[in-house]
Give the backbone structure.
Amino acid sequence: MSAITANDVSLASTKQRPDSVIEIAGFTPEAAKYSRIFDFLVVFAVITLFAGAIHLHVMLTVGDWDMYVDWKDRQFWPLVMPISMIMFPAALQSIFWSNFRLPIGATVAATVLLLTTWIGRYANWWVWTGFPFTEGVPSQMIAGALLMDFALIVLRNAVLTAIFGGFAFGFVFWASNYSALAPYFLPVEHQGTVASVADMIGYTFPRSNMPEYLRIIERGTLRTFGSSVSWVSAVFAGFVCIFVYYAWWKLGEFASQATFLKNNRSIMSYMGLRDADEAGQTAKIGGGAQS
Amino acid sequence: MMRISVFFRLALAATALVVCAVTSALAHGERAQEPYLRTRTVQFYDVHFSKTKVAVNEEFEITGKFHLMTDWPDAVSLPDVVFISSVSPGPTLTRVATFLDDEPARQSFSKLELGRDYNFRMVLKARTPGLAHIHPTVSVKGSGPLVGPGQWIETTGVATDFAFPIATLTGEHIPDLQTFGLTNAIGWHVVWVVIAAVWLLFWLVRPLLLPRWIALQKGREDALVSMTDTAVALSLTVVVLALIFGGYAWEVQRYPYNVPLQSGTSKVAPMAKIEPGVTINVSDATYDVPGRSMRLKASISNVGPEALTIGELTTANIRFIVRSLPSEMANVASDYPVDLIARTDLKISDPSPLKPGETRVVQIEATDAVWETERLVSFLTDVDSKFGGLMFFYNDKGERRIAEIGGPIVPTFTELSAATQ
């Protein structure tokens, strides 16, 4: 008897259990259509808002390293760039995953940053000031961001994603960018001294108020590790990224909270509900609203 | 209606301001530098531009000397790390070679000496057609660029004709530094954007925000992320890792002899010191604000073996010259920027040659509107109101001797007080 009952319940559950997200949400076809329009509006807002915000953040924190090809040294550049660049991707991952189970936050951040950066290179650097593109080849973090999103969907845990995804983000920054930048480290001779092609580009096309000494580049190799400076930096960048990632994940959680203002006459007046209140009706706004 | 009209007028006025009031910035605010930076740090002299009109790809030189003042301001970092450069509005000109006392100057120099002179040479190559104001500059770490006299350079030709070819030590010919490696760099970026787009579209084609949020609230995570999604992510992980490390290995094999960015500073000896043969002791210095005149009372002693005549006072690239002295005029190049030469002669109470062993108290007066136009009078608002400059003396053979001059200066703000000085 009990077995039959359980089977019946199971069958009934299977029949009633919808599989599509729209059905689960209980949307009518028309509601689904408007929901889709809402999706597009939000996607547009996310792209424009975060493209600007991430670009500004990176420019303010590590802008020179990202802007100039002759600042991309093998010791500090692989360290400072990912540590700064992981912040917004981690926060966006938190927002998209915690609220929508979308493992795309990091990739969104990395992609809009690269697109915005190239727009800046074209508009500001080439059209406006005439610097050649070679002087401003930017770095990209899409490779690391993809790995971070993949880690999240596989591990489904913020701490584990910080350890594996965050580390991967920092660690692969050097390798994934070296592919694009390797030709700029070819050696040339200039005035009887050795220089890299990147050095020559920075020297040839003057940045009037940016003297050579401003470049904070390595002053010598790490003695213990010989010429493997970049990989040491990459490992350390990955290590630091673990903690930065988790801090910004928490910041993303905090920023995506939905909070409600307690209802009162002022708030209601802003919403055009004062008359209703005065008529003695109760207007409830949101889950926590009370008059 | 009235409101609209006012608003419309304001908008029209704002538009007119934006459209009409904007002019091209051809120079770069060198006059905005504080006078104490320009009068008491680096004194440029003998600056010469080999050409003032060049074609795209044509080279020209800026040569000259500079003296580092002994009375270096406390507010300015000492010239412990210095970079010799040119200031231009963007990369309208490109640098080909730079020398400081004949030493290669692509990198910075350390520990330049106060009270000493250095000569520099820059080889530049024209890039962007148009008119550009170009300066030599000595950048001091901690203080910024200290600019020398500017010259207008006119570049003719077509911008797209410019190219900067170099050869690498590995035997590769680079036809143009402006475009080298871009195809490779942009190609890699496109690859990453395409993979990112695939991953994003994989998710964006599904219902996104509201239905997923509601489903999550209902505890239906199973409908939001499937095992297939995870499998796709794992597959793409392999692809991404292969691209990262495969691409790295490929580039390492392609360019096995890469070098890191070059760093470190060079050292250079100053020019051989030539004793000026005179000592100058300024006992009184005033700046007459309404009269735009600097008046000095100085005791000058000739401690050398030859008679010397005052020919010039120079400070902040401004030259107050004695036009009646042929030796001085021989040192004023015809192409020196006219706006940097005072129209009024340097007045000396007794301009006759100072004999060996003689000490003479002279009144020197440097009067010109250039004090105002070059915005040098605001040195009166400095926390230590001092002036500085170089005095040029000439012997009877026309040889020049250079001595520092400087000290405290007192402003006079009224014509009455100026007249009583």
The domain at 278-420 of chain B is CATH 2.60.40.1580 (Immunoglobulin-like). Residues 223 and 377 of chain B are 76 Å apart (CA to CA). Helices of chain B lie at 2-20, 35-39, 182-204, 210-217, 227-254, 326-329, 370-373, 415-420. The two ends of chain B are 65 Å apart (CA to CA).
